[in-house]
């Protein structure tokens, strides 16, 4: 709905859209401007009569255009800022009034809801293929049986004259008298029985498999979800499995595409360097605080130490301002275009040019803070300050002392008194909400009072007053300097406003500015309240905000200076976006400054920092007016508005004046290098796709172990298509030559044992591609994709920098389609959504950059390092289990059906079965379904520790080695063998006996059940109580069901009665002898093969397990001989070796 | 209170601990690896169990004495008719009865209870449509007025119900077998009761209420078309008559294979000379030949047999057990060799591993 009016006087309302995109921060929406003017003060719904033109409903959540044509011919534009989407929650707003524009199914929430993607895993596709094979087998079985049926029938044709065949029923006629032809023609009988057989044999198509697999996957996902290791202690977030049907894909990943920012790195920006006036100020980050709580709201932890030099210079600027101010009673004049002005502007840009939301503090927060009820009026504020002041001191004492050494000036150089009580007259605006505001007072106060009463009044010991780590050069009140150390202050003392930003970059910058005294205090649509050291509170009027987009890579804000009324454009953006738009006609000095700054930028990016440039442009009134006019036209246009706005933005964002640059460190997440190394050891190819600069990206790649120092780095930086092609060809040739050389040397050196072939020094290569080159490569016309991918195949790590979201997705797609590999994409931001959706498995990091990535993902993890366990352990398990269960199911159904087929040999291919209908139904459903489900959910072919310690074991899933086409046929063969044993051996046991058909059937069923149970017992890798329980339960079910069914129902269900069958069978020794013999004989080959495999040619997992066991055994023996109890940790015991 | 709650709490704690371990997939597990040394004992165990068991089974099977007599083509004993009984009954369009005699000699006396079986070859009692062609409700004596559709086309005829209905009952074996001591020309007594399963006898087959005749119990019924007698005329013994006739009950239990035998009766060992079994001597079998088998190329046999606890004579089980046992022993030896030859590797690994785990 479009907001027309709200309780807020500015027509603002706040929403939380966590239902839509998961972002829990408040978003600001405003009522339609331009209408209220005509409606006077009171908005009345009844008086609202306008036409509203809006675009058709789309799925684009963040896109909305529309206009309201006014009677005057003007058009009032509507944008997404006016639109409240369905599923949003209204916050901090009493009421709103608006017009519903999309309703029902047309709402964006519903449109986006439609059609959950159904991903089918590779294993499942493979399985479906085998199911088709099963259909083929079924067809042949039916064909054979039908032919047999016809042939069998035909042998009775000749004897018809000799009387009736008593066991062949006459054609269904009402009379028992022999019709002229007793029997149907063999062809007809064969034809009919073909369809009969399809019904009888259809069990070979494992329908139950699909159901079972879904159950297993559900439980697997449940287990993944429950895993405590996925819980991130910091954020409290845990894994979120959004896709239920592809857990086994996690075990088969071959390529991992990962975003860098927020995925490999913390996305918790730490302001590290800035370059102002071609001076580089660096800041030492405080590392150990990163482990403390870091929820977005209280993002006030001290992440870097202030740069002393910069502080000094800043105070050098502000001091004269402070002194100058009151005397002249006019705005302090900073020399135009001076370094000082640039410095102030620089920080102003940091503070102002952003979309940070300054959160309000509800009143009760304050009450809780000091433990007493504090009225919000200013009268008591000094007490609050006092209370908080002492509490800070007492709390910050210890850490403060540590920090003390950092400060060359333990005492304020400023002549201004640090005591809050020294300033009794408080300005009315010094409300608890903005306790910083007293600083204005002091700044305004020219008298440098070192209040003597301070120490006497304050019960603080002397060293304490010295101790607080005050950036006192900034000349602010002590409590403010304390407030900058909230990590050592108790959280209740929330004095600093809470900043909430869409991107952590902005947060870091605002934070940095804050620490240097440039405090963003309030931000609304039309003005920004900033406290500037030396100037005090300044309220800038915001004329325009040119929001950030990924094409321009910059954002700007046009403000009116409160004193000079200059219209100033502050621009902040990527270095390329700013440096290209600097004003050309400048003096040498500026050029030098730009050059030096560029040098700094290069240094920063080499350090792996994210660089941003700040620029400014003073607009003349006329310039502004003409642009603003054009801009509003662009804003109001309906068609192609985006493009027009973009052009409009670009018109104003030029001729910029460089202020400086910042370097923000994007810290690597914990365990990222280890994880990447583990993934690479697991044989997974890791590609990093990032939008960062090449230098930055390469540095990160090195630090996160994507690139090894031993690697040969190939860089693709083509500027033209031909160049790209040439470079790729060149690299390919080079690699080919190297390979040939290597092979040559290998074939010459005869003493190369076959086992070490893989470890022969194949030179590892890393490939770096930049966005421009990607453009040529991904261009469909260029036909470079194949060559590029074959080059990439030769490289063990690929880094794509400057990649746009679309390019990311295209890369993933081309790798997926052309290389036929299973891909996994990890990302955290909105720019990774398309990549995540394209990949076979999308993993979202529920980090700081909103939840779009999480919404698009199949699995959402809290940290990148969780990927290791997710893939190596859970993925491996899930794949291994499912593959084995699928094979087992094929075997299970095939063997059961084949037994029925063999019986046709003895009953004239009539389609009769010696197993009762009920058992036929129940056998697959109950008797043999529990153990495979248990194995599918809980079996572990290797314990977690082994899988994590030996990442190469992942290759099992990567190469799909558990479930090959050959293993399918191997299983079918096994089923064939087992059915032959189960049927014919039992048949021989009952030959020449009085055995009834169902008695025989009961024996076969029992034997089949035992054989299938033994089969799964052989396939079980780790026995737990659940496995045993499953097997016992299914056997018990067989007996209990049998007992009930054959004891209660002498005539029911329409089929020949089974009364007494089970009891009779179980009482007969032949039954037991046959069952034991056949079931053991049936599984014997599999048992032998498995045992031979394990002892002669164990696969990697078994080898690792053997090693693990023997090391465990050694530990056990050692500790046991030392008579210490390790049995609690002793997980895997092997009774035959102990 | 606390004393009672304690174990409860403990079990609760235990349960939650189990839950925890279950959720984390860390339940205590036993991870057997099927290496040579692990599977060795299994093979030897199976082998050592199966071979003697097989030998015992063979012994039991051999202890069973059996005599089989094919009388399909036996000639009519009636004067002037010198053709096989099967011809006789076919010519009369399966209405005439034919008596024939077959001589046989018992050379080894049977030492235990002797059972008389009839055997049929090539009779597909397990044919799908045949197996279904019965009405268990009718045989229960419950619902005799409306036969199940499964019985068709032997369900009803002209408003009268076939008793018993269905193809199985219709095709009931109705030759009468009588054994004679050839020397004494004396009829051997047969016990015709207790030849069917007790569960069948007691529960599955019941006569309808009333006297066993066509006016009370079997009102409005007719005999199946192939039958020569009514169902209430099957036996003189009232407890073995009607649906409770054990020949019928035995027949109604479909055989598993087309070659089968069914129990016909037990030799009455209370007869003089039969106390300890079946004495050797010359005997003859007199057959009231009614049952045609030519149409399906079947054979009819009479079998005299003692039983062991395994039932009849069947060497297969014993041989199979011995074979499987031997295979297992052989495999055990093979794995022993493998273990000796290759098993050392594990020991080596153990030694290396202690110092350098997981290094390649």
UniProtKB/TrEMBL annotation, chain A:
Pfam families: Cation_ATPase, PhoLip_ATPase_C. The keyword Thylakoid does not apply. InterPro entries: ATPase_P-typ_cyto_dom_N (IPR023299), ATPase_P-typ_P_site (IPR018303), ATPase_P-typ_TM_dom_sf (IPR023298), ATPase_P-typ_transduc_dom_A_sf (IPR008250), HAD-like_sf (IPR036412), HAD_sf (IPR023214), P-type_ATPase_IV (IPR006539), P_typ_ATPase (IPR001757). ATP binds at residues 259-261, 506, 548, 572, 610, 690-692, 802, 808, 831-832. Residues 854-1098 form the P-type ATPase C-terminal domain. Keywords: ATP-binding, Endoplasmic reticulum, Magnesium, Membrane, Metal-binding, Nucleotide-binding, Translocase, Transmembrane, Transmembrane helix. Belongs to the cation transport ATPase (P-type) (TC 3.A.3) family. Type IV subfamily. Residues 428-440 have a biased composition (Low complexity). One of its GO terms (biological process) is phospholipid translocation. This is Phospholipid-transporting ATPase. The chain crosses the membrane at residues 127-146, 187-211, 885-906, 918-938, 968-988, 1000-1018, 1025-1045, 1065-1084. The lineage of its organism: Eukaryota, Metazoa, Ecdysozoa, Arthropoda, Crustacea. It catalyses: a beta-D-glucosyl-(1<->1')-N-acylsphing-4-enine(out) + ATP + H2O = a beta-D-glucosyl-(1<->1')-N-acylsphing-4-enine(in) + ADP + phosphate + H(+); ATP + H2O + phospholipidSide 1 = ADP + phosphate + phospholipidSide 2. The active site is at residue 259. NCBIfam families: ATPase-Plipid, ATPase_P-type. GO terms for molecular function: ATP binding; ATP hydrolysis activity; ATPase-coupled intramembrane lipid transporter activity; magnesium ion binding. It is a multi-pass membrane protein. Residues 414-466 are annotated as: Disordered. It is found in: Endomembrane system; Endoplasmic reticulum membrane; Membrane. Mg(2+) binds at residues 259, 261, 828, 832. PANTHER family: PHOSPHOLIPID-TRANSPORTING ATPASE, PROBABLE PHOSPHOLIPID-TRANSPORTING ATPASE. SUPFAM superfamilies: Calcium ATPase, transduction domain A, Calcium ATPase, transmembrane domain M, HAD-like, Metal cation-transporting ATPase, ATP-binding domain N. One of its GO terms (cellular component) is plasma membrane.
UniProtKB/TrEMBL annotation, chain B:
Its main location: membrane. GO terms for cellular component: endoplasmic reticulum; Golgi apparatus; plasma membrane. Keywords: Membrane, Transmembrane, Transmembrane helix. The chain crosses the membrane at residues 39-60, 316-340. It is a multi-pass membrane protein. Belongs to the CDC50/LEM3 family. This is P4-ATPase flippase complex beta subunit TMEM30A. The lineage of its organism: Eukaryota, Metazoa, Ecdysozoa, Arthropoda, Crustacea.
């Amino acid at each position: 709905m479009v907001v027309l009016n709200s309780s807020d006087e500015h027509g603002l309302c706040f929403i939380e859209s966590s239902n839509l995109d998961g972002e829990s921060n408040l978003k600001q929406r405003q009522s339609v401007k331009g209408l209220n003017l005509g409606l006077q003060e009171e908005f009345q719904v009844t008086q609202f009569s306008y036409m509203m033109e809006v675009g058709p409903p789309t799925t684009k959540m963040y896109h909305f255009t529309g206009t309201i044509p006014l009677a005057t011919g003007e058009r009032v534009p509507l944008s997404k800022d006016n639109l409240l989407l369905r599923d949003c929650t209204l916050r901090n707003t009493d009421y709103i009034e608006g017009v519903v524009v999309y309703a029902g199914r047309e709402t964006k929430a519903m449109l986006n809801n439609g059609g959950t993607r159904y991903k089918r895993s590779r294993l499942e596709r493979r399985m479906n293929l085998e199911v088709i094979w099963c259909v083929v087998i079924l067809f042949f079985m039916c064909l054979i049986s039908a032919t047999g049926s016809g042939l069998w029938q035909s042998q009775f044709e000749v004897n018809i004259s000799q009387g009736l065949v008593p066991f062949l029923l006459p054609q269904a006629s009402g009379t028992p008298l022999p019709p002229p032809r007793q029997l149907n023609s063999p062809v007809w009988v064969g034809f009919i029985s073909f369809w009969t057989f399809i019904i009888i044999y259809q069990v070979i198509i494992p329908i139950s498999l699909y159901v079972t697999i879904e159950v297993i996957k559900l439980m697997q996902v449940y287990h993944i979800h429950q895993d405590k290791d996925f819980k991130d202690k910091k954020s409290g977030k845990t894994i979120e499995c959004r896709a239920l049907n592809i857990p086994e894909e996690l075990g088969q990943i071959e390529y991992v595409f990962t975003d860098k920012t927020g995925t490999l790195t913390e996305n918790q920006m730490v302001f590290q360097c800035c370059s102002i006036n071609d001076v580089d100020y660096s800041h030492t980050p405080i590392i150990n605080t990163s482990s403390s709580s870091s929820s977005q709201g209280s993002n006030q932890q001290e992440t870097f130490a202030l740069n002393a030099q910069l502080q000094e210079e800043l105070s050098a600027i502000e001091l004269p301002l402070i002194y100058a101010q009151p005397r002249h009673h006019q705005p302090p004049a900073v020399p135009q275009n001076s370094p000082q002005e640039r410095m102030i502007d620089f920080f102003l840009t940091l503070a102002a040019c952003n979309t940070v939301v300054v959160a309000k503090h509800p009143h009760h927060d304050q009450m809780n803070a000091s433990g007493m009820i504090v009225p919000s009026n200013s009268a008591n504020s000094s007490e609050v300050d006092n209370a908080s002041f002492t509490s800070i001191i007492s709390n910050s004492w210890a850490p403060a002392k540590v920090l003390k050494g950092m400060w060359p000036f333990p005492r304020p150089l400023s002549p201004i008194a640090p005591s809050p009580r020294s300033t009794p007259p408080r300005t009315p605006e010094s409300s608890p909400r903005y306790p910083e505001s007293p600083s204005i007072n002091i700044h305004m106060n020219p008298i440098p009072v070192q209040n003597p009463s301070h120490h006497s009044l304050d019960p603080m010991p002397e060293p304490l007053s010295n101790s607080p780590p005050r950036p006192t050069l900034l000349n602010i009140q002590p409590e403010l300097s304390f407030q900058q150390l909230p990590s050592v202050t108790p959280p209740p003392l929330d004095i600093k406003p809470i900043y909430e930003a869409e991107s952590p970059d902005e947060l870091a910058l605002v934070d940095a500015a804050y620490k240097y005294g440039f405090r963003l205090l309030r931000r609304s649509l039309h003005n920004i309240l900033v406290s500037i050291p030396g100037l005090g509170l300044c309220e800038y009027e915001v004329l325009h905000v040119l929001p950030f987009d990924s094409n321009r890579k910059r954002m700007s804000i046009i403000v009116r200076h409160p004193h000079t009324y200059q219209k100033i454009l502050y621009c902040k953006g990527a270095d390329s976006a700013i440096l290209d738009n600097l004003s050309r006609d400048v003096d040498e000095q500026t050029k030098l400054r730009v050059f030096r700054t560029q040098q700094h930028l290069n240094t920063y990016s080499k350090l792996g920092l994210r660089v941003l440039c700040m620029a400014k442009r003073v607009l003349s009134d006329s310039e502004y007016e003409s642009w603003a006019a054009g801009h509003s036209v662009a804003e109001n246009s309906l068609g192609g508005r985006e493009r027009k706005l973009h052009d409009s933005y670009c018109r104003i964002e030029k001729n910029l004046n460089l202020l400086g640059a910042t370097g923000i460190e994007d810290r690597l997440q914990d365990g990222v290098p280890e994880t990447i190394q583990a993934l690479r050891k697991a044989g997974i190819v890791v590609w990093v796709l990032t939008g960062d600069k090449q230098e930055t990206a390469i540095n990160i790649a090195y630090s996160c172990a994507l690139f090894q120092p031993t690697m040969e780095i190939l860089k693709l930086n083509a500027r033209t298509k031909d160049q790209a092609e040439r470079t790729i060809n060149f690299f390919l040739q080079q690699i080919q030559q190297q390979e040939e050389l290597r092979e040559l040397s290998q074939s010459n050196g005869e003493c190369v044992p076959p086992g070490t072939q893989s470890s022969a020094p194949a030179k590892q290569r890393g490939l770096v591609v930049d966005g421009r080159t990607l453009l040529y490569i991904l261009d469909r016309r260029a036909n470079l994709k194949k060559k590029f991918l074959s080059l990439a195949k030769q490289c063990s790590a690929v880094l794509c920098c400057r990649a746009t979201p679309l390019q990311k997705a295209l890369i993933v797609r081309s790798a997926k389609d052309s290389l036929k590999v299973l891909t996994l994409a990890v990302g955290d931001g909105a720019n990774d959504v398309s990549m995540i959706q394209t990949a076979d498995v999308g993993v979202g990091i529920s980090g700081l950059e909103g939840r779009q990535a999480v919404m698009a993902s199949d699995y959402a993890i809290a940290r990148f390092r969780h990927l290791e366990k997710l893939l190596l352990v859970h993925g491996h398990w899930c794949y291994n289990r499912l593959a084995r269960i699928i094979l087992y199911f094929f075997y299970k159904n095939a063997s059961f059906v084949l037994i029925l087929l063999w019986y046709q040999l003895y009953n004239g291919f009539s389609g009769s079965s010696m197993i009762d209908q009920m058992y036929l139904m129940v056998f697959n459903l109950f008797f043999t379904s529990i153990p495979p489900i248990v194995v599918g959910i809980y079996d572990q072919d290797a314990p977690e520790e082994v899988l994590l310690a030996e990442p190469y074991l992942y290759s099992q899933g990567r190469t799909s080695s558990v479930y090959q086409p050959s293993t399918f046929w191997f299983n079918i063969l096994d089923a064939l063998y087992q059915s032959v044993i189960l049927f014919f051996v039992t048949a021989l046991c009952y030959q020449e006996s009085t055995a009834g058909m169902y008695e025989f059937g009961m024996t076969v069923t029992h034997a089949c059940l035992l054989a299938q149970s033994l089969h799964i017992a052989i396939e079980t890798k780790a026995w737990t109580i659940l496995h045993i329980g499953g097997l016992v339960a299914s056997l018990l079910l067989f007996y209990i069901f049998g007992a009930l069914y054959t004891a209660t129902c002498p005539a029911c269900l329409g089929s020949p009665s089974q009364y007494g069958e089970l009891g009779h069978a179980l009482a007969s020794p032949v039954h037991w002898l046959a069952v034991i013999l056949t079931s053991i004989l049936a599984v014997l080959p599999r048992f032998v093969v498995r045992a031979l495999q394990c002892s002669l040619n164990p696969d990697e997992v078994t080898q690792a397990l053997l090693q693990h066991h023997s090391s465990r055994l050694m530990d056990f023996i050692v500790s046991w001989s030392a008579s210490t109890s390790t049995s609690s940790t002793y997980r895997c015991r092997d009774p035959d070796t102990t | 209170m606390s004393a009672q709650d304690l174990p409860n709490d403990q079990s609760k704690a235990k349960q939650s601990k189990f839950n925890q371990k279950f959720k984390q997939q860390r339940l205590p597990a036993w991870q057997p690896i099927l290496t040579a040394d692990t599977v060795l004992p299994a093979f030897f165990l199976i082998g050592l169990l199966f071979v003697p068991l097989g030998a015992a089974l063979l012994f039991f099977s051999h202890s069973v004495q059996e005599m089989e007599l094919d009388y399909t083509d036996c000639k009519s004993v009636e004067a002037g008719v010198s053709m096989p009984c099967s011809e006789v009954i076919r010519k009369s369009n399966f209405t005439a009865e034919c008596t024939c005699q077959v001589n046989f000699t018992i050379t080894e006396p049977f030492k235990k209870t002797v059972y008389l079986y009839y055997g049929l070859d090539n009779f597909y009692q397990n044919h799908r449509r045949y197996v279904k062609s019965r009405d268990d409700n009718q045989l229960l004596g419950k619902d005799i007025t409306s036969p199940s559709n499964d019985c068709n086309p032997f369900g009803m005829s002209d408003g009268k119900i076939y008793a018993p209905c269905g193809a199985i009952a219709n095709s009931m074996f109705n030759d009468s077998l009588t054994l004679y001591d050839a020397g004494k020309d004396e009829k051997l007594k047969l016990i015709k009761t207790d030849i069917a399963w007790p569960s069948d006898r007691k529960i599955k087959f019941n006569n309808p209420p009333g006297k066993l005749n066509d006016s009370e119990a079997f009102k409005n019924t007719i005999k199946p078309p192939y039958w020569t007698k009514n169902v209430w005329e099957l036996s003189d013994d009232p407890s073995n008559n009607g649906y409770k006739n054990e020949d019928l009950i035995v027949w109604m239990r479909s055989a598993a294979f087309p070659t089968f035998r069914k129990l016909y009766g037990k030799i009455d060992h209370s007869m003089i000379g039969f106390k300890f079994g079946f004495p050797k001597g010359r005997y003859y079998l007199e057959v009231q030949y009614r049952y045609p088998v030519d149409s399906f190329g079947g054979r009819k046999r009479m079998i005299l047999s003692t039983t062991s606890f395994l039932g009849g004579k069947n060497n297969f089980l014993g041989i199979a057990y011995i074979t499987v046992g031997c295979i297992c022993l052989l495999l055990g030896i093979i794995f022993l060799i493998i273990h000796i030859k290759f098993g050392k590797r594990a020991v080596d690994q153990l030694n290396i591993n202690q110092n350098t785990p997981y290094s390649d």
